[in-house]
């Protein structure tokens, strides 16, 4: 598995299982990585557009930060009325994928008790590690959001409601 990281995150992603790490502050990842089965984009924009170049034909690009597409409306949201809007919104990545025979999907997080129970089991088993950047008291929630918005948090920020 390959991933991008800056030197700030390199030790963390290596510990989490990355075999290949591309420093995104110095190198364009699509020149270093080729022919992967899939790519998972957490950044969107230009990073999403470039992700198609690292995936082989028949593969899949999934984005958490790009545009929702028609399957998001039909399957994930159960709102077929949104198909035309999402079709238009995702035209860029879908056309990019069509040219390379790579599918595009948007990952939409939605509340699900059974998914959370499954995640909790995997965390208890040690299959998933929860990475916590920091734990802050409620009084410091403003600073915590500012840190999150900086785009450089390393994992989750937990807010303590009671001291
Ligand atoms: N679709 C959904 O339902 C859904 C749900 C939740 C979140 N999201 C979206 O998912 C995205 C990711 O959120 P997140 O909570 O994981 O955190 P985030 O705060 O966006 O990501 C922080 C991490 O990304 C690294 N990073 C920043 N720019 C990068 C780049 N150009 N290339 C590679 N790595 C980069 C930073 O590393 P360095 O500090 O080392 O630079 C930092 O470790 C956000 O856009 C969020 O809005 C979507």
UniProtKB/TrEMBL annotation:
<dbReference type="InterPro" id="IPR050700">
    <property type="entry name" value="YIM1/Zinc_Alcohol_DH_Fams"/>
</dbReference>
<protein>
    <submittedName>
        <fullName>Zinc-binding dehydrogenase</fullName>
    </submittedName>
</protein>
<dbReference type="Pfam" id="PF13602">
    <property type="entry name" value="ADH_zinc_N_2"/>
</dbReference>
<dbReference type="InterPro" id="IPR036291">
    <property type="entry name" value="NAD(P)-bd_dom_sf"/>
</dbReference>
